[in-house]
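User: For my dataset I need records formatted as: sequence, then structure tokens, nothing else. Please produce one.
Assistant:
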Amino acid sequence: MTTFISLLVILCATLPVWAYPTPDLKVIRAKAAALLLEERDDGPGVYMCTDVNWGGECYYQPGLATTGENACRQVPDNELNGDKSLVSSFGPDEGQTCTLYGNIFCTNTGEGTATVSSPGTGDLVAYGYNDKVFSYKCVAS
């Protein structure tokens, strides 16, 4: 994390701001997320955000390797609003495919499921699963 912050400070200090148009925040967030993902060494995980196109509040849930392949994982509380999911972007790490569920038990109780493979999607609307993810299972793809 400190490497990323140091890199960002150096980059900001060395670029003349007046020479470039207003930055695209979506691109900056995606690049920052990619740098953070490169620094991890705790096994595969998933990255999720509360808005489409990797916007809003984002969270990385690491350690899929520690819970075992195809284990049910719940969406963390900061990606929920009471009984409503806020997940609109979902991205498994490289080599992972995840099935998304509309309940905390990783079961299909009639609401269907969605399958997302690495690098994921910035728009769960296209999967019919925007703000519906409560749990997921991932396997190596």
